[in-house]
Amino acid sequence: RDSFNEAGCDIKVRIGLREGSSSFEEAREVGFSEDADTLGEMFDIIKKSDLVMLLISDAAQAALYKEIFAAMKPGATLGLSHGFLLGYLESIGESFPEDMDVIAVCPKGMGPSVRRLYEQGKEVNGAGINASFAVHQDKSGKANELALGWGVALGSPFMFETTLTSEYKSDIYGERGILLGAVHGIVESLYRRYQRQGMSAEQAFVETCESITG
């Protein structure tokens, strides 16, 4: 929204939330409101939107994808921030409806970092967070331009093209496999191995760190 306002663009950004969400008050505090038609219940907002950015949890995507697809108006675009939904649909033998564009812009950081670096970019040239982008379906012929425009509005100083399949597979392997488990396991295994070979605890620690960091 800030990018559009600063560019003098009249595109309306709306936030859709589940009923009873505590985020309604937070959205109102930063200028979104029901009266201005920029804040509302999730499915009401989806029905009105030309681009639906589906920024909900993986579990919610798996539970609600049928209702989301059904609520989207003809010709609307589905925007994703990572490829989980494709992986889930493939695992159950389903796919995205063929009559919609499906794109992704995937920032390489968590939401608070994306916002912080976006704001920093107003003062520091080149600030912002890098992102990958993917076009999974291009029914309109304009999906690539839309994905790139989304990345620019997000403040990404550099974007690289990928596929939605590569994105979710690298996400599972890199984030959930390596970062959340493998690094810890490798470090502990090396440390114990070096000690079994007769190294002191201090030397085993040094050797382990050097093995991991190169």
Would you tell me the structural class of the helices and strands? alpha/beta
CATH fold-level label of the domain at 49-163? Rossmann fold
- The chain-level mean pLDDT equals 90
First-last Cα distance? 43 Å
Determine the CATH superfamily of the domain at 49-163.
NAD(P)-binding Rossmann-like Domain
Q: What string gives the helices and strands in order?
A: HEHEHEHEHEHEHEHH
Helix content: 40-55%
Q: Which blocks of ≥5 consecutive residues have pLDDT under 50?
A: none
Rg, Å, rounded: 21 Å
Question: Which architecture of the domain at 49-163 per CATH?
Answer: 3-Layer(aba) Sandwich
Structure annotation, total helices:
9
- What characterizes the major β-sheet? 5 strands, mixed
* Extended strand count: 7
The amount of beta strand, in percent, is 5-15%
Written overview of the protein:
- The chain is an alpha/beta fold and 214 residues long.
- Among the domains are: 49-163, Rossmann fold, CATH 3.40.50; 181-213.
- Helices cover 51% and strands 14% of the residues.
- The protein has helices at 2-6, 23-29, 42-48, 58-71, 84-91, 111-120, 143-154, 164-196, 201-213, and strands spanning 15-17, 39-41, 51-53, 77-80, 101-107, 131-137, 159-161.
- It has a five-stranded mixed beta sheet with strand order 3-4-5-6-7, covered by helices on one side. Strands 1-2 form a two-stranded parallel ribbon.
- The model has no long low-confidence stretch (mean pLDDT 90).
- This is Acetohydroxy-acid reductoisomerase.
- Pathway: Amino-acid biosynthesis; L-valine biosynthesis; L-valine from pyruvate: step 2/4; Amino-acid biosynthesis; L-isoleucine biosynthesis; L-isoleucine from 2-oxobutanoate: step 2/4.
